[in-house]
Amino acid sequence: MEHLNTELAELKQKLLTMASHAEAAVNEAVRALVDRNYELAIKVNNNDNVIDQLELEVDDMAIHLLSKAPLAGDLRFVMVAMKISTNLERVGDEATKIAKRARDLSEEPPVKISVDLPRMATLALGMLKASLDTFVNRDAAAARAVIPRDKEVDALNKAINNDLADYMVAHPDTVKRCLHLITASKSLERIADHAKNVAEEVVYLCEAQDIRHAGKIGPTTT
Amino acid sequence: MSTAANHSNLALTARNLCVFFGQHQVLKNVSLDIAARSVTAIIGPSGCGKSTFLRALNRMHELVPEARMTGEIRLFGDDIYARHIEPVIVRRRVGMVFQKSNPFPTMSIAENVTVGLRLNGIRDRNILVERTEQSLRMSALWDEVKDRLNAPAISLSGGQQQRLCIARALAVQPEVLLMDEPASALDPLATSKIEDLVQELKKDYTIVIVTHNMQQAARVSDQTAFFYLGELVEFGPTSKIFTSPAQKRTEDYVTGRFG
Fold first, then answer.
1. Domain-embedded: residue B34
2. Considering its fold, how many domains does chain A have in total?
3. Residue B93 lies in a domain
4. In principle, which of A119, B17, B92, B237 could form an S-S bond with B30, CB 3.0–4.6 Å?
């Protein structure tokens, strides 16, 4: 039994390593965008394979643990770990998308419009960090509290899209650059979605309640 | 304690079942409903009372000196401990398969299958032949032994011997089949055959299986009951017991963190 506990702890640690890489990638990608830092954008892009590699390692550990047929809380933990890993890998992908836009924008003149991507990044990253904390602490109540924060990010994304759409109409020569910013905004919105997914998985881990798609389809029962 | 089945479809109902061996109380107020044509797994650590519960279901524990029980067990509504009911009648309706296969060593394969029928006075050769084939087919052994029905039963492998014991139990056409760790002494292939067989048999029979193998319980059963220190701790759908048990003691047991 002690052996299984050790392996479950190793899986958790691997996931947290992956999470720290994903958070750093988003931070750096946004910084590259705001600071128009070409080198930093390239670095984020090149580092994505580290997160991809960690995803493979998490899956390897999980399948190894599943072969030992864990049950109840252990079974839920392994399943949730695999799902969180998928979400973190996608966070890494979104960071790469932002970095690519940052790279392209850094080679063009700046757009003269104030777009609050840093605030959006702060909100999305805050959600990601909070959801991972709930995983570490196995805190279902805190996980539930993360979920509605996604709406704030959605609203901000919509507002940014509207502002940029208006700006593009008024300044057609900026369309290409504005589209880069819209894509970056969308990526941050997706990162918040992944954070929400992680929080939902933590609720399942703690309470065995599947709260995904709540209100849209019937609840599942075990 | 929760009940898991629709009352109109119950094969067995236990109410406030207590079993004592001398001064020692082995089962404490167990109430449990077992649905017809389903598989119910009984799990719990050694000494928790699960085999005693199984044996109470066909009055086998009465074979132990100093055993006594209180409470009630009904088989399709009939009180199996009613004064006028003979234990042998109950055991015909509620068959049992044990951990260690126990074919009669001096009998052939066919004789083992029909021994229960012959003890019940059936001599008609046609019936015996027909029931032999039927039982061996139901226990998924027919194709492996049909050409050597007169060979000694002990010439069969361990897994085949266990399926022969299942055929022997089925030959008297019981309504319920009790299985006490039926695959614990078998290799994975023979175990898989027994598990497949359990799934087939539940179409016609009610099966109660005691197992120490959590994965086996998860694979074969519809309902699972967790016993601890003579008490029924939790009873519910197997998928719930093994993914999100309600009781901490169940969680600790199925994840191997007990004690």
1. yes
2. 1
3. yes
4. B17
Provide the CATH number for the domain around residue B238.
3.40.50.300
Please give the sequence-ordered ranges of beta strands (E in DSSP) within A52-108, or none if there are none: none
Nearest CA in chain A to B258: A1
Domain assignment of residue B184, yes or no? yes
A18 belongs to a structural domain: yes
Give the one of A71, A208, A221 whose C-beta lies nearest to B255's C-beta.
Answer: A71
Q: Which of B214, B218, B244 sits opposite A208 (nearest CB)?
A: B244
Cβ distance A222 to B239 less than 8 Å, yes or no, reads yes
| Close Cβ partners of A96 (under 8 Å, ≥ 6 residues apart) | A25, A29, A44, A45, A48
> Tens digits of per-residue pLDDT, A99-144?
999 999 999 999 888 888 999 999 999 999 999 999 999 999 999 9
Q: What ipTM does this complex have?
A: 0.73
> Domain residues for B114?
7-254
CA distance B191 to B257: 26
Q: Contact A72/B244, CB-based, under 8 Å?
A: yes
Taking contacts as CB-CB distances below 8 angstroms, the residues of chain B near A70 are 255
How many Cα atoms are found within 13 Å in the side-chain-facing hemisphere of A67? Answer: 7
Residue A116's domain is classified under what CATH number?
1.20.58.220
Q: Is A214 helix (H, G, I), strand (E, B) or coil?
A: strand
Contacts of A208 in chain B (CB under 8 A): 243-244
Cα–Cα distance, B8 to B77 (Å, whole number):
10
Domain for residue A174, yes or no? yes
Length of chain A: 222
CB B49 within 8 A of CB B227: yes
Q: Is residue B110 part of a domain?
A: yes
Among all residues of chain B, which has the CA nearest to that of A79?
B243
CA distance B225 to chain A (A): 15
Q: Is position A212 within any domain?
A: no
Contact of B134 with B216, CB cutoff 8 Å: no
Q: Which positions in chain A touch B239 (Cβ < 8 Å)?
A: 222
Tally of CA atoms within 13 A in the half-sphere of A125 that contains its CB: 20
| Number of separate domains in chain B | 1
Q: C-alpha A38: how far from its chain's center?
A: 23
Each residue's pLDDT tens digit, B86-127: 999 999 999 999 988 899 999 999 999 999 999 989 999 999
Structural domain contains residue A72: yes
Range of the domain at A104: 2-207
Q: Chain A closest CA to B243's CA: distance in Å?
A: 4
Local confidence band at B1 (pLDDT 50, 70, 90 cut-offs): very low
B191, B249, B257, B258, best to mutate vs chain A, most A CBs in 10 Å: B257
- For chain B, the residues whose C-beta falls within 8 A of a C-beta of chain A are 214-215, 218, 237, 239-240, 242-245, 250-251, 254-257
